[in-house]
Amino acid sequence: MKNPLKEVAVGLGSLFTGMRLTIAQFFKKDVTVQYPHQSLQMPARFRGHIELVLDHETGKAACIACKMCEKACPSECIVVDGVKPEGKGKKILTEYTLDFTRCSLCAACVEACKSEALVFSREYNLAGRNKEDFQMDLLRRLEAKSKTEAYHAAAPAAEPEAAAPAAPADPATPEAAAPAAETKAAEAQQ
Ligand code: SF4
Ligand code: SF4
Fold it and tell me: Which residues line ligand 2 (CB under 6 A)?
């Protein structure tokens, strides 16, 4: 036969255990991310898709189109092209595409790049409806990123100071009277 007192004691014990855990969690820092309004900050070692590094001095890709990454890629998912302008020693990158559907994130390309022009992005929010969404033009992406960075860098300087509300024009002043006179002259001509 069951001992009712023992059952009450066991029930109270589990009740207090549950409350203790709940109260302990209540005072801990929130770990919930309000996605998509908030995004996680990925750790430095996170591997998203590869991306080109911006040379902040030139505002262009640091890549010299040497094709070492293209040769190193075991999945053959990188296409690089560049042109060497007349009289210049370095090539200028004209094409850098990645077929991310075939990339295994092995890092062979990043390690092959001696110019430190290629890194893994921290992008984890990739989603698409078809595989063409993952044919990535990394050069265009870098140019868009460069424009965005330049825009944000210039924004505080270019932002005009909040204009003071204009004082109502005094009809007695010549500056205020001039437009009124012009209007009257225009009306007279009509
Ligand atoms: S991470 Fe590996 S598979 Fe992906 S592009 Fe680079 S070399 Fe190719
Ligand atoms: S190895 Fe580096 S510098 Fe050479 S093409 Fe690839 S990203 Fe550009």
Answer: 63-69, 80, 112-113, 115, 117-118
Taking only the tens place, the pLDDT of each residue in 52-74 is 999 988 889 999 999 999 999 99
Domains and CATH numbers, the chain: 50-153 (3.30.70.3270)
| Structure tokens that stand for 56 in this block | 């902040």
What residue's CA is closest to ligand 2, atom 4? 66
Structure tokens at 149: 């960075």
Q: Indicate the pLDDT class of residue 97, thresholds 50, 70 and 90.
A: very high
For residues 48 and 124, is the Cβ–Cβ distance under 8 A? yes
* pLDDT for the residue 154: 77
Compute the Cα dihedral for 141, 143, 147, 150 and give only its sign.
Answer: positive
* Closest ligand to Cα 52: 2
